Amino acid sequence: MSHSNYYNENMKIHTIYLLITGALLLSCNDNFFETSPATQITTQEVFSSEDNIDAFLNGAIRYLMENSTSQDNPGLPTIFLTHEVMGEDAFARDGRYGFRDSYPFRDPFDNTTRRALFFWTLQYTSIDHANNIIDNIEINANSSQRLKHLKGQAFALRAYNYFNLVRQYQFTYAKDPNAKAIPIYIHPTTPNTEPNPLSSVSEVYDLILDDLTNAENLLVGFERSIKNRPNIHVVKGLFARVYQTLGEWELAAEYAKNARTGYPIMTPEQFTEGFNDVSNPEWLWGHPQTQTQNKGGASYLAYIETTPYTTDANGTNLYYGYNSIMPDPWYIQLFEDGDIRKSLFEIATQPSEALYRHFRNKKFRNKYPHHDGHIVLMRSAELVLIEAESKARLNNLTGAIEVLNELRRKRNLTDLSASDFNKESILEEILLERRRELWGEGFRLYDILRLQITPERKETTETFVDDESKTVGIRGHWFTSFPDGSPFVPNSKYYLFPIPLNEINNNPNL
After folding, report:
1. How far apart are CA 498 and CA 168, in angstroms?
2. What is the DSSP string of 337-356?
3. For the residues 348-373, what does the mean pLDDT come to?
4. Is residue 470 one of the residues assigned to a domain?
5. Alpha-carbon distance 376 to 285, whole Å?
6. Which of 40, 131, 195, 225 is the most buried (most CB within 10 A)?
């Protein structure tokens, strides 16, 4: 993988030590630590029992979701938030810490920033964790079901990381499957590992599909106790995402439908509860957190939450966290009256409150008082929209609208009629529905790249009357072009993450 000093210090030399002494400490049995102190653990000892492998996997998942190099890099959700502010429906609040340089396409594009290094290192470290499990678990006729399930989860984790990476560092498959994208590693690395050259987009997707197939076969019968573990439904959901990106519409529709079986779309009332708990019946995959794991005000939810949690003695709204990511006023106009999601927008009208003149969106709320909200990773609504889009692209307009109406009913909307649409107009409606439904969950940049479209950012002229009876303008987009002043275009270099300079300097084979 990387041979940079940063990577060596954070993963290659200390892979096992970091996991065991950190997240795994509470998961392994007492005897294990009595006989082999954390500072002396070897790879062989870690993989000597199923309990230890399970603990290693638990630590690997927690690493991906929670590891941070600074307050503005709260694990994998850092990438979700970056994707949102690189689109048109969200913006980073001017002058606010966190994503102010992601919003104008500066820090994702600059390969010298610590965030560019973080994106790369976090995901390749997670791949190395998965590779350790995959390489150290031998499956044969005598293997237990639990061992198969552990290896299956590792295959799913590796596929998930590579799928994210190939879409972050190169344009979409449909544009050029032969374009060079990222290096592939399928075995654990050491400081002596020869770094690999870039593989093509198609080669990465071949590996992703192989990994998901292995995961699907190995996870049969797996009953998880915590939703952060990928089960067979999550694997089918990942298949649906991959086939959607590849334009394999029959398979995308089939996998999306099968994946969401048993995970009903949440009710309108549940949509208003704050998107903060894996117990939501629609969540196929999510990461529960304690207050400590959530990193307080620098967590995913604290960056995107814009709901006041209390008021001061003067009645001024008070907010927890950075509250950096805001909905754009034009985005709100995408919603129909009566839509439960539209009811979650409101203007901050107090001149003395931190979010004054911004629209708040109460979709995400970081549980009060402990601020231990959970991270959403996959929902049935997304799979409904994949199925609907797939059917529309296959010219099954009636089927597409039937599926779309399943979601609309759960958002307090009336059914659409097939007689009112053609293929182009229903596809437009489905893609708009993705924007309405999935805001804040990290999908927007992926869709901009997959669809090869141009995000449209417009400054708003909308006004309102504040609490002091003054008519003032609502705040919205304040960057409407690329850093070089050029207009937004499809397939721009600014949409791609850069391979960090450290990696380039230390990998002569790139």
Report:
1. 9
2. TT-TTGGGEEE---TTSTTT
3. 95
4. no
5. 7
6. 131
